[in-house]
Write a structure and sequence with these properties.
The complex is a heterodimer of chains A (about 500) and B (about 300). Chain A is of the alpha+beta class and about 500 residues long. In chain A, about 35% of the residues lie in helices and about 15% in strands. In chain A, the strands form 7 sheets. Chain A has a 5-stranded mixed sheet with strand order 13-12-1-15-14, sandwiched between helices. In chain A, helix 18 packs across helix 19 and helix 19 (about 405-425) crosses helix 21. In chain B, helix 3 packs across helix 6 (about 95-110). The radius of gyration of chain B is 35 Å and the shape is elongated. Classes of the chains: A alpha+beta (about 500), B mainly alpha (about 300).
Chain lengths: ~500, ~300
C-alpha cells in the first residue's frame, strides 16, 4: 500500500444555477493578465452543448487522455518516441477559434462620438489583435445559444442516444438542460503530466494538486493536447502553459479556493481523499464499464488503522488524516456513492466528482391543474419524479459520468429520488410513509443515510463544505530540502521572471 | 671608431646583400613569375625590367608587401596600373619583410644591362611538358569537380571556386569564379598558377600537395574551354527552379507526415450543422409545397 493524500472536490450539479460567479472570481484572481484573456480555469458549461473549447469531449479530434490496449496504458496523443518525433510540431493543438477570440468593447466611443442622428455603439475589439472584430463564439456559447441545433445537437454525449431520446432533448416543453461547472480535475493519473517532455507539469506530493512549473516550462504544449479536459492553457505572452492551481496559496492559508468560496448555489465541496498509489495503473486500465467502481476502490477508508499506518509511513501529516476523516468528498463519493467522475473513460482518474443533476420534474396541465407526474397515464405511483418517466435520458448522463454504464447512474438516481421522496413524506406529508420506505428500499439506503445526505446537501455549514486540511508546506518541503537552508540560501525573491516577462 | 663600425657594417652588409639577391631569385620564380617577367615582356602584370629605375625603392617595397592596401588607399600609381592591366589587381602574396627585401635586391640587381644579357633564363614560366598523353578537358572537369582525385591529395577546385558548365548549383564562393580566369591570366600565367599558386589562401594548401604535371595540363585545358563559355542566365534560372522544387517537395513531405493533424474544430462543425439545417428546411418546404398543391386541388 502506497497511501497518499489528495485534496479533492465534489460539485453538486442539482444546486448549480449557472450564474458564473465562480468563473468571474477565478478570472479576477488568476487570468486577467495579458496572454491569458481567453483562459477560463473555471468555466460553466450548458449541457447538452459542445463546451469550451468546442467539442473538447471528442477525443477522436483532440486525442487527450489515455487508452488501454490489452490492459496497457498509453497516451492517446503519442508514444514517447512520438513525443520526440513531433516535439517541434504538436499536431493536436486547439486553435484560438476553438476556445474563442477574447474581446473588450470600444467604450471610449460612447463618450467621444460626434453628435449624430443615432446613438453611438461600443463595437467589440479583439484582445489579441486590437482590431474591431465580429464575435463568433464565447466562453459559454452554448448558454447564449441554448439548445440550438448547431451547438446542442453536436454534443458528443448525445452520440449514442436513440432518435427518440434525441428529439426529446430538444422538444419544446420537454427540453432538458443543466449546468456543468468545470475546473482542473487534479487527476491521479494526469495526461498533462505524462505528456510534458520538459518535466514542468507535476503533481504535488502532499496534496495532489497538479501544477505547471513556470521556470521549467518550454512551451512544447504537449500538456494541452494530453489533457482530455482541455484544462491546461497556453499563455501566448509569456510562452508558458498555465492551469488551475486550485488556489493553493489560499488553501495553504486555510481558505477555500476562490470559485468554491464564491459559489452562490453552494454546490461545491472540498475535502481530502486517501488513495492507494500502487493501484493507479490497475484502476486506470480497467474495462470501461468497471472504471467507476475501480475508481471508488482506489479510495481508502481514512478510519482503517492499516491505511492510517501506511499513510503515516508515507509522510502524510496527522492534520491531513484528521481532515480526511471529516471529508465531505469521502462521504459523497465512497460512503453514499452519489458523486461520479466526469468522463472516467479518459482514464486519468479525475479527483473532481459530480452529483448528477436531479431529473427535471415532468409536469402537465390536467383538469386545470399543473400536475407534476402523469401517474395515471404511466400507471406509476405519484412520486415527485420517477426514474421510469424521467425526462433526461439516462444514457446521456451515463455518457457523461460513468463511461456509458447506465446501471451506475440508475443507482445514483434511485438514491437521489429516495432522499427527495423521504423528505417530502416527512415535511410536506403528501406522500405516504409507505411510499417513502419503498423509495428508500429502491435506493438501497436507510432513513439515517437519507437524512445525512439531505443535511449535507441542503443545510451544510461553511466548515462542513470546505474541510481544508492544514497543508503544512513547511513539513512537505522538509522531505525535499532543509527549510532552514532554503530560507538562508534562497532568501526572498529568488524566483526569476521569464525572459519575455510575466 | 665610427670608421670601424662602418667597415664592419660594410663587410657584413655586402655578402648579405648578395645573399639577398640570390634568395630573391628563388622567391621571384615561386611567387612572381606567374604574372611577371624580367625582360620577357608583359604577361598578366608588367615586365619588371628596369623597375628599380622607374619606381622609388620605398614604393616598390610597400607595393610588393601590401598591394591590396595601396589599392584600397587609392594610391595614384597603383590605381593607374590597375586600369592599365585589365583591372586584375596584384594580390597580397603574404611575403615576409626579409622576402620583400630580397626581392627588391634581386630586382635591383637584375635591372640595367645585366638583365638584358640573359632574357631566356628569366622566362620562369616553362611550357607544360606534354608527355605521351593527350590533355583532356573532360578529365580536367572531373578533377575540378572532385570526381577524380588529385594524386597528391589537394582539395578539388569546386570546393572554393565556381565555373561555367558545372551544373546549376555551381561551386564554392570562397575563391573567385574561374570562368574568365584563363582569359585574364593567359596560358603561361595560368600554367604558373597551376604549378604553384601564389595566392595567400591557396599556397598553404597546395604547397604541400602540388598538382602533378598531367593534372595541370588537364585543368589548364578545361579552364581554357570554360573561358569560351560563360555562366548563362539559364543556369541561374535552373538554380532558382531547383530551389523552388526543393521547397515544394519539403512542403509536401511535411503535409504528408502531419496530414492527420488537428485542424479547426468549431468553424467546420458550425458550417456542417448550418448546411444540414438548410437541407432539412428545403426538404420541409418542398414537402409543404406538394401538400399545399394537392390540397388546393
Amino acid at each position: 500500500m502506497d497511501i497518499r493524500a489528495q485534496v479533492s472536490m465534489v460539485f453538486h450539479l442539482d444546486k448549480c444555477i449557472g450564474c458564473h460567479t465562480c468563473s468571474v472570481a477565478c478570472k479576477n484572481i488568476w487570468t486577467d493578465r495579458e496572454g491569458v484573456e481567453y483562459q477560463w480555469w473555471n468555466n460553466v458549461e450548458t449541457k447538452p452543448g459542445t463546451g469550451y473549447p468546442t467539442l473538447w469531449e471528442n477525443q477522436d479530434e483532440y486525442k487527450g487522455g489515455w487508452e488501454a490496449e490489452d490492459g496497457r496504458l498509453q497516451l492517446k496523443l503519442q508514444s514517447k518516441i512520438g513525443t520526440l518525433g513531433n516535439i517541434f510540431y504538436n499536431r493536436r493543438l486547439p486553435t484560438v477559434n476553438d476556445y474563442y477570440e477574447p474581446w473588450t468593447y470600444d467604450y471610449e466611443h460612447l463618450f467621444n462620438a460626434p453628435e449624430g442622428d443615432d446613438q453611438p455603439t461600443a463595437r467589440p475589439i479583439s484582445l489579441i489583435t486590437g482590431e474591431f472584430m465580429e464575435i463568433e463564439s464565447g466562453p459559454n456559447w452554448d448558454d447564449d445559444l441554448g439548445g440550438s441545433p448547431v451547438y446542442a445537437s453536436n454534443d458528443p454525449n448525445v452520440g449514442s442516444l436513440t432518435d427518440e431520446e434525441r428529439t426529446q432533448l430538444n422538444e419544446i416543453e420537454r427540453v432538458m438542460f443543466f449546468y456543468l461547472p468545470r475546473i482542473c480535475n487534479h487527476c491521479i493519473n494526469p495526461g498533462c503530466v505524462a505528456a510534458c517532455p520538459a518535466g514542468a507539469a507535476y503533481k504535488r506530493g502532499e496534496d495532489g494538486i497538479v501544477l505547471v512549473n513556470q521556470d521549467k516550462c518550454r512551451a512544447w504544449r504537449m500538456c494541452i493536447s494530453g489533457c482530455p479536459y482541455k484544462k491546461v492553457y497556453y499563455n501566448w505572452s509569456t510562452g508558458k502553459s498555465e492551469k488551475c492551481v486550485l488556489c493553493f496559496p489560499r488553501l495553504e492559508s486555510g481558505q477555500a479556493p476562490a470559485c468554491f468560496h464564491s459559489c452562490v448555489g453552494r454546490i461545491r465541496y472540498l475535502g481530502v481523499l486517501l488513495y492507494d498509489a500502487d493501484r493507479i495503473e490497475e484502476v486506470a486500465s480497467s474495462p470501461e464499464s468497471e472504471l467507476v467502481e475501480a475508481q471508488r476502490g482506489i479510495i481508502q477508508d481514512p478510519f482503517d488503522p492499516e491505511v492510517i499506518a501506511a499513510a503515516k509511513a508515507n509522510g502524510v501529516t496527522d492534520g491531513m488524516l484528521q481532515a480526511a476523516k471529516h471529508s465531505p468528498v469521502y462521504k459523497f463519493v465512497k460512503e453514499w456513492k452519489l458523486a461520479l467522475p466526469l468522463h472516467p473513460e479518459f482514464r486519468t482518474v479525475p479527483m473532481l466528482y459530480y452529483v448528477p443533476p436531479m431529473l427535471p420534474v415532468l409536469a402537465k396541465m390536467k383538469d386545470g391543474k399543473y400536475d407534476v407526474a402523469d401517474a395515471e397515464v404511466e400507471g406509476l405511483k405519484p412520486q415527485l419524479t420517477s426514474l421510469e418517466n424521467a425526462r433526461a435520458p439516462l444514457a446521456y448522463m451515463a455518457n457523461l459520468f460513468s463511461a456509458g454504464n447506465e446501471d451506475i447512474v440508475t443507482e445514483v438516481y434511485r438514491k437521489l429520488i429516495a432522499v427527495r421522496v423521504y423528505k417530502r413524506a416527512e415535511k410536506v406529508g403528501d406522500i405516504t410513509q409507505e411510499e417513502a420506505q419503498e423509495a428508500l428500499a429502491l435506493g438501497n439506503m436507510t432513513a439515517e443515510e437519507a437524512e445525512a445526505i439531505f443535511r449535507l446537501t441542503a443545510l451544510p455549514s461553511f466548515e462542513e463544505r470546505f474541510v481544508v486540511p492544514p497543508l503544512a508546506r513547511e513539513v512537505a518541503i522538509e522531505q525535499i530540502e532543509s527549510p532552514y537552508d532554503r530560507k538562508r540560501e534562497g532568501g526572498f525573491g529568488s524566483r526569476t521572471a521569464p525572459g519575455r516577462r510575466w | 671608431m665610427l670608421a670601424l663600425l662602418a667597415a664592419v657594417w660594410l663587410a657584413a652588409g655586402s655578402p648579405a646583400a648578395a645573399q639577398s639577391a640570390d634568395d630573391g631569385e628563388a622567391v621571384f620564380s615561386a611567387k612572381c613569375a606567374a604574372c611577371h617577367t624580367i625582360g620577357g615582356g608583359t604577361l598578366v602584370g608588367p615586365d619588371l625590367e628596369g623597375v628599380s629605375d622607374r619606381r622609388e625603392p620605398e614604393w616598390l617595397s610597400r607595393w610588393i608587401a601590401e598591394p591590396d592596401l595601396m589599392l584600397a588607399e587609392g594610391e595614384p600609381i597603383a590605381t593607374d596600373m590597375l586600369a592599365e592591366f585589365n583591372n586584375i589587381p596584384m594580390p597580397n602574396l603574404g611575403l615576409t619583410d626579409v622576402e620583400v627585401a630580397s626581392l627588391v635586391a634581386y630586382l635591383d640587381a637584375r635591372s640595367g644591362a645585366t638583365a638584358v644579357s640573359e632574357p631566356e633564363q628569366v622566362q620562369a614560366v616553362e611550357p607544360i611538358v606534354v608527355g605521351p598523353f593527350e590533355p583532356s578537358g573532360d578529365t580536367g572537369k572531373r578533377l575540378f569537380e572532385g570526381s577524380d582525385r588529385f594524386d597528391n591529395g589537394g582539395p578539388p577546385c569546386l570546393a572554393c571556386h565556381s565555373i561555367a558548365g558545372i551544373g546549376a548549383l555551381g561551386g564554392g564562393a570562397l575563391g573567385p569564379d574561374l570562368t574568365g580566369a584563363y582569359g585574364k591570366f593567359g596560358e603561361s600565367g595560368m600554367a604558373s598558377i597551376l604549378a604553384a599558386p601564389p595566392f595567400q589562401t591557396m599556397s598553404p594548401i597546395f604547397d604541400d600537395r602540388p598538382l602533378t604535371e598531367e593534372e595541370q595540363a588537364h585543368l589548364a585545358l578545361f579552364l581554357s574551354q570554360a573561358a569560351v563559355s560563360s555562366r548563362t542566365a539559364a543556369s541561374v534560372g535552373q538554380l532558382a527552379l531547383l530551389g523552388a522544387a526543393g521547397a515544394v517537395v519539403l512542403l509536401l513531405a511535411t503535409q504528408l507526415l502531419w496530414r492527420r493533424r488537428l485542424r479547426e474544430v468549431r468553424r467546420p462543425m458550425v458550417a456542417r450543422s448550418r448546411a444540414r439545417i438548410e437541407r432539412s428546411r428545403q426538404a420541409e418546404d418542398e414537402r409543404r409545397g406538394t401538400t399545399s398543391e394537392t390540397e388546393s386541388r
